[in-house]
Amino acid sequence: MTWTRSRPAWVAALIALFALLRALRRFVEVDERPVALVVAVLVVVTVALVPTSLGRGQVPAERAGWRKALQFLAAGAVTALATLLGGGVILAGALGVLAAATVAVAWPALKKST
């Protein structure tokens, strides 16, 4: 079972998307709002495609959902923070996706003991 059956992951995805849309609407100039909308959606879609963990071990479905929720929230928070601090919208989106990938690297799957 993958993270797509996890309620916490879907709720986190929706929260991250709406928080990103609201933050980018507030912190971005009117001219760049269409770009900010595209970046917000691309960040959430890209984070959905990032694996929940790296390594040969497998992650139980419940943990995969919580890991994916953490990835969504980290990406949303980093993107909004980078935009608030004056980074460009595209750079902020890239940093958000990098934050989600960092969760997978920092929290590897456990190997099954034989």
Description:
With 114 residues, the chain is an all-alpha fold. Helix content is 70%, strand content 0%. Helix 1 packs antiparallel against helix 2, helix 2 runs antiparallel to helix 3 and helix 2 packs parallel to helix 4. The longest helix has 24 residues. It is elongated, with a radius of gyration of 15 Å. The model has no long low-confidence stretch (mean pLDDT 85).
Total strand segments: 0
User: What's the alpha carbon Rg, rounded to whole Å?
Assistant: 15 Å
Residues in helix, %: over 70%
For the termini, the CA-CA separation is: 22 Å
Strand content: under 5%
Assign the structural class, choosing from mainly alpha, mainly beta, alpha/beta, alpha+beta, or little secondary structure: mainly alpha
Q: Which series of helices and strands comes N to C?
A: HHHH
Mean pLDDT: 85
Helical segment tally?
4
Uncertain segments: none
So what's the overall shape?
elongated
Q: How would a crystallographer describe the biggest sheet? A: none
